[in-house]
Amino acid sequence: MQTRAQLKFWLNDGTLFGHAIAVTEKNFTAEINLGAWLSKNGAVDQALICYSRALQIKPMDAVASYDLGNIFLRMGDVEEAERRYGTALQTRPDYPEALSNLGLALTRQKKYAAAATNLLAALKIRPDFADALNNLGTVRYYQGQHAEAARCFGRPERRSRQV
Which contiguous run of DSSP H or E holds residue 74? Predict the structure, then answer.
């Protein structure tokens, strides 16, 4: 009988972690996981609340700061996203996803040199990081470095044919 009563909470991550939050106090893991589920399912306003509560529990957690940065980036608040990625990197300077997304936020603000610096740092940590390489390609394109952009995008440089 107990199992049947618990099954309703195991419907999906949303019900599971929502229930965990309801029956516990200051449950960092549940807040992060519910935030991820909400974000994945398009409920960014609710995800923002979960990530904010997670940061109230662990103020300097790199993952929570990064996740919150992603929410702000999706919402178009690139300055706040930049700040959150910076907070994540204060705690964990070798966080390639935070470096890459900071590069993306800086690119959206047309701060191309700073964006490239962060993207190159992400690629130094993880050379096969496709998102960082793609973001670097975008930066190089905007900087007018089209041959380098093409290399980042994985295409050989186009050469004009001499006739």
Answer: helix 62-75
Rounded CA separation 42/16 (Å): 18
Asked if 7 contacts 15 with a C-beta cutoff of 8 angstroms, the reply is no
Q: Is the pLDDT of residue 155 over 60?
A: no
Q: Distance between CA atoms of 55 and 41, rounded to whole angstroms?
A: 21
The count of other CB atoms within 10 Å of the CB of residue 148 is 17
Give yes or no for residue 161 having a pLDDT over 50. no
Q: What is the DSSP letter of 126?
A: -
Q: Provide the pLDDT for residue 102.
A: 98
pLDDT digits (tens, 9 = 90+) for 19-31: 778 888 898 888 8
Instruction: Determine contact, residues 122/96, Cβ cutoff 8 Å.
Output: yes
As a dihedral over the C-alpha atoms of residue 54, residue 59, residue 64, residue 65, rounded to 10 degrees, the angle is 140
In this prediction, residue 93 carries a pLDDT of: 97
Calculate ∠ Cα 134-144-117, nearest 5°: 55
Distances (CA, A) of 43 to 46, 92, 107, 125: 6, 27, 25, 32
